[in-house]
Amino acid sequence: MIDDGLATGATMRAAATAVKTKNPTKIVIAVPTGAPDTCRSFEGKVDEVICVATPEPFYGVGAWYEDFSQTTDEEVCELLDKAAKIKPK
Q1: What is the pLDDT of residue 19?
Q2: What is the pLDDT, as a whole number, of residue 24?
Q3: Are 66 and 58 in contact (CB under 8 A)?
């Protein structure tokens, strides 16, 4: 599972709990940035945790992005349409 970052981890914790009910083979959490304690809190609860940057102090996810603007529903639909047209190799 991926996210833009982990501050408190509440959303990712809820997602991991929901996914576990489906008995997956493996759960991997991957984020570009996260609070160090939050990233560590997932160790042992999922199979793998990838937090690329765990800066201290951690001011919030948005502080580590040049552009942290919201993605519109229209943008998401356009990206999904583009991805559906890409043929796998």
Answers
A1: 97
A2: 97
A3: no
Q: Tell me the whole-structure pTM to 2 decimals.
A: 0.78
Helices and strands in the chain, H and E counts: 3, 2
Tracing tokens 């576990």 back to the chain, one arrives at: 20
C-alpha torsion angle, residues 45, 38, 72, 62 (rounded to 10): -160
Residues 6+ apart with CB under 8 A from 9: 34, 35, 38, 41, 42
User: d(Cα 79, Cα 89) in Å, to the nearest integer?
Assistant: 19
Domains of the chain, by residue range, sit at 10-85
Residue 87 CB burial class (10 angstroms; 0-12, 13-18, ≥19): exposed
* CATH 3.40.640.10 given to domain 10-85: no
